[in-house]
Automatic annotation (TrEMBL):
<keyword id="KW-0805">Transcription regulation</keyword>
<dbReference type="InterPro" id="IPR050679">
    <property type="entry name" value="Bact_HTH_transcr_reg"/>
</dbReference>
<dbReference type="GO" id="GO:0045892">
    <property type="term" value="P:negative regulation of DNA-templated transcription"/>
</dbReference>
<keyword id="KW-0238">DNA-binding</keyword>
<keyword id="KW-0804">Transcription</keyword>
<dbReference type="InterPro" id="IPR000524">
    <property type="entry name" value="Tscrpt_reg_HTH_GntR"/>
</dbReference>
<dbReference type="InterPro" id="IPR011663">
    <property type="entry name" value="UTRA"/>
</dbReference>
<dbReference type="InterPro" id="IPR028978">
    <property type="entry name" value="Chorismate_lyase_/UTRA_dom_sf"/>
</dbReference>
<dbReference type="GO" id="GO:0003677">
    <property type="term" value="F:DNA binding"/>
</dbReference>
<dbReference type="InterPro" id="IPR036388">
    <property type="entry name" value="WH-like_DNA-bd_sf"/>
</dbReference>
<feature type="domain" description="HTH gntR-type">
    <location>
        <begin position="4"/>
        <end position="72"/>
    </location>
</feature>
<dbReference type="GO" id="GO:0003700">
    <property type="term" value="F:DNA-binding transcription factor activity"/>
</dbReference>
<dbReference type="InterPro" id="IPR036390">
    <property type="entry name" value="WH_DNA-bd_sf"/>
</dbReference>
<protein>
    <submittedName>
        <fullName>GntR family transcriptional regulator</fullName>
    </submittedName>
</protein>
<dbReference type="Pfam" id="PF07702">
    <property type="entry name" value="UTRA"/>
</dbReference>
<dbReference type="Pfam" id="PF00392">
    <property type="entry name" value="GntR"/>
</dbReference>
Length: 246
């Protein structure tokens, strides 16, 4: 460690203890006073080291209590294979059921107008009417996924599938719902990226602000290539992996 700044030495030592299980999830790391004594360091140096650990997502502060090791145990994998996306049920519900988890979600739908970005993804004009549905998905009561979906009203208006979570086809997923109005042969296209969580996303997913999330842009198209639904899905990058199959 010779030559490395003291704050980096502290951060490296604590990181190693966390990775090796010396400091376990939910355990309090040494206090500022303890770290100052152990490393003969100043308040500023110790605070800088702890900030590095927080930025790395290894620890989190609890007001009035101290700094604790975060639980970053992987929950599992979310399947993004053709089979998973073509299930007769909603993909998320089918996936969690296969993993032995109890899936549930809250949703709200409203009619709005397509922004230029959403219009481009749906192949419609900006300002055209769409049904926008927002989801908060949980498994065994733990937050897993956030999603926002848009469907052109030109396709669904006046049908039994106008509201994704109401009516006889509620909760059955895009494929089943569209099949009910004569649109079949759907395929899903996805783009995946990583970015920091917004404050609202972090609160809903139960992670620190600006934590890394996986952002999935999914669009269902029919046999002619016409988009019938597009959605933004967000999951925690430190707790879930995406499993793709050709």
């Amino acid at each position: 460690m010779t030559g490395r700044p003291v704050y980096q030495q502290i951060a490296d030592d604590l990181s190693e203890q966390i990775v090796n299980g010396v400091l376990t999830p939910g355990q309090r790391i040494p206090s500022r006073a303890e770290l100052k004594s152990l490393y003969t360091a100043s308040d500023q140096t110790v605070d800088r080291a702890v900030r590095i650990l927080k930025t790395a997502g290894l620890v989190e502060g609890q007001f009035g209590r101290g700094v604790y090791v975060r639980d970053t145990t992987l929950f599992g994998a979310l399947r993004r294979s053709p089979a998973a996306l073509s299930t007769e049920h909603a993909p998320f519900a089918a996936d969690m059921s296969e993993q032995g988890r109890k899936a549930s979600w809250e949703s709200s739908s409203l009619t709005t107008t397509a922004t230029a970005k959403i219009a481009a993804r749906l192949g419609i004009r900006p300002g055209d009417q769409v049904m926008c549905t927002q989801y908060e998905c949980t498994a065994d009561r733990q937050p897993v996924q956030l999603a926002t979906s848009w469907e052109p009203l030109a396709i669904t208006e006046g049908t039994d599938v106008l509201f994704p979570e109401r009516g006889p086809y509620a909760g059955l997923g895009v494929r089943n719902r569209m099949a009910a109005i004569g649109i079949s042969g759907l395929t899903a296209r996805e783009l995946v990226g990583a970015r920091p969580a917004s404050s609202d996303e972090a609160e809903a997913l139960g992670c620190p602000p600006a934590s890394a999330v996986l952002a999935i842009e999914r669009t269902y198209v029919d046999g002619s290539g016409r988009p019938v639904e597009t959605a933004d899905l967000v999951v925690r990058a430190d707790r879930w992996r995406l499993a793709y199959e050709a």
